[in-house]
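In response to reviewer comment 3 from the previous cycle, which asked for concrete evidence that the modeling workflow produces usable outputs, we include below a single protein chain processed end to end. The sequence was submitted unchanged, and the resulting structure tokens are shown without manual editing.
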Amino acid sequence: MLSIRFIPRFAIIAIYAILVWLPVTLFAQADRISGQVDASHFLQVTGNVNPHVTPALDQGRVDPAMKLNYVHLMLKPSAAQQTALDQLLAEQQKPGSPNFRKWLTPEQYADRFGVSQVDIDKITGWMLSQGFDVITVARGRRFIAFNTTARQIQNALKTELHYYRVHDELHFANATAPSVPAAIQPLVMGFMGLDDFQPKAHSKPIPRGKGLKPSLYYDNQNVLGPYDLAVIYDVLPIYKAGYTGSGSTIAVIGRSNVQLSDIASFRSQVGLAANPPKVILVPGSTDPGIVSGDEGESDLDLEYSGAIAYDAQILFVYSPTILTSAMYAIDNAVAPVMSLSYGICEQDVNNATATGWQSLAQQANTEGVTWVNSAGDAGAAACDQGSDQASHGAAVELEPAIPEVTGVGGTSFVQNGVNYWDPTTTNAVSYIPETVWNETAITGHIGAGGGGYSTFYNRSPWQVGLGVPAGTARGVPDVSLAAAVQYVPYFVVENGGQNVLVGGTSAAAPTFAAMVLLLNQYLGVNGLGNINPSLYWMAKNTTGVFHDITTGWNGVPCETGSTDCNSTGYFGYYATPGWDPASGLGSVDATVMFNNWSVAPGNPQIANVLNGASFTNTGLSPGQFFTVFGSALGPVNGRGLELDENGNVSNYLAGITVFVNGTPAPLLYVGPTQINAIAPYELANYIGQTVELQVYDNLVPSGTFNVNVVAAAPAIFPLGNGQGAILNQDYTVNGSDHPAAPGSYIFIFGTGQGQTNPPGVDGQINGNSVASLPVPVGAFSLTIGGVPVPANDVAFAADAPYSVEGFFQVNVKIPENVKAGNQPVVLKIGGIAGPPANVVVK
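The workflow returned the following structure tokens.
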């Protein structure tokens, strides 16, 4: 007879982990570099070569003396840290969670998700030994910024910097993947700054005559000013309620210095009191001075973020690169809202860069920072910004596609002969219907609201609803606002006092960012983090928040024979009801959005309660694994079981509790649509009765759900296609590739055995002593292939060792006369038979 003692612990744990979602063990921050750094043993850091680095584009090596300012060594978390970070990000957005809107300081982020200080010291020690000029170690301990030269890069990182001609522009980049000492390599995400492929500004200025004034009917058209936007997007009631941004701060990101006189002139001309932005040059970076094109972009961003939230403190963070500016703003948590109107085509970056940008956005969200980014002005062809026709296929820009960033697309107004403007003041008097912004045909140059699907980032669980198609790619944009260049553009003062008209999603992004800042003030919070889950929830569950854009498209002309170019000579996306990749969810009614913001995910709804193994409605037996299906049941990113202070499976997980007849059930897994739990053994007192089940998200309860209590509900866990969770005698998983021979033993795993002897203890973890393992009170029997198994061939039938009580194991010999093939195994406990599950017999 085969004894339980001969089953290795690893076999039990392996099958148990597959079936009941054993948790990933979360370790506290630990040192990950053992010993000293050996500078003689190097490993490459993969994913760190720009996709344009090809022999055909190579223009030769750069000058070895070339200086590089603010290169970033990006550090990555351990797998356990990333799991914990993902969970925290979900909980910070979930009402009722203990972590709801509990933002971290950069130092708290460092201690939970950064590299240990000991490891930082070892890495910086190696960097200094290579001659790198270390500028700063991030407060969040996720990057180290340094100055260097091309020669030092070659010597230290074992790669050369070359010039490459891309899109008729000369760029430099590392020719091969950089290498670092082997001890450091597992901690290195990559390097950002070894190439100069930079995000580009999105604004589209149109110089006008000196007589141009804001809110005037100029050149046969109306002009947008801050007051017009406040009317069109229903911000005026928010002002009247006293929410103007006073005491709040918003950060604008740039890569050029600005002339504060431009901002002062703008505010004066639109009737706003002086409120100059605070200008911050990133410490240790080279001042780029006034940069043509970039200065105008920054003027636009500063003027409209500061005009919509007109009493807010505006911080302008700048440096020679957008990356450096954004990193400083986030790593120092300078403001709860950040507006960025730059973007780079996803085809122009490597995997490490994409991962690095997302890690930056995730840190921002943990600190409560909402990052708003323009979606781009090249329609569905982000890689062809500034061109007359597309030649690189459908693409989106990287920054707005990051799931932790809110991407803002563009619309234009459709007046259809209706006058939406006061003829006396030339101000807008109401909302004006919108269509997708696309002026490509008017200008002969690509100019349309950016949108499409990411090739780097997966779609988050919150991006669902009307219009969102099947698929796994993150869709962009999330929302849209006015962005037209030719028809009703924005009034801006830039470049030393020039009054100009401007359009593009660069105008839409700071306008929306300012609304988010007002929302912070309205809610009385210092940060909302990632607002995307709430935006999509409101789109599904409320009305009036969004002006759904259902006309127009962001299609662009394309070069014959180029990627995605069809027979029409165009490609792009049409607006449709609900979300679409041309306008996102549409534009917003700010007042309705504010009033509905407190109504957000968090009210659990139970749809069904089923046997956790058979997924049928068997009722609940004591100790049975069961599954609750529904909506808003738990965190967006599912969470596996945890042990309480007594070493038992906890009945409180990620803020969730499941009560069965008033008794909390041990929780194996909680997620947004599913909870796996264990029925309390207290149900043994209610056999034949109906009890109530209820899910609590902290203090927020679901409705009650009635379930029947039964003495037993035996069921074998499934592995798919009717196959049961069964191990062979050699501990391989039974299946067509590993069938079991008649006369050999198999190990069957199930649940629903009912009350046990000794009586079960909720959530208790079993040891491995056969004498102490709980056995079912009801009589046990089984058949295999219709053949009854003699009692003396059942070597073991009790709770599995090393597992939580309620996880049942049967060790049984297959009768010699069972036929080959898929044969049903049926368990019967206390006269109650469970559904069949297959075992494959030779």
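The chain has a mean pLDDT of 91. We consider this sufficient to address the reviewer's concern, and the full set will be provided in the supplementary archive.
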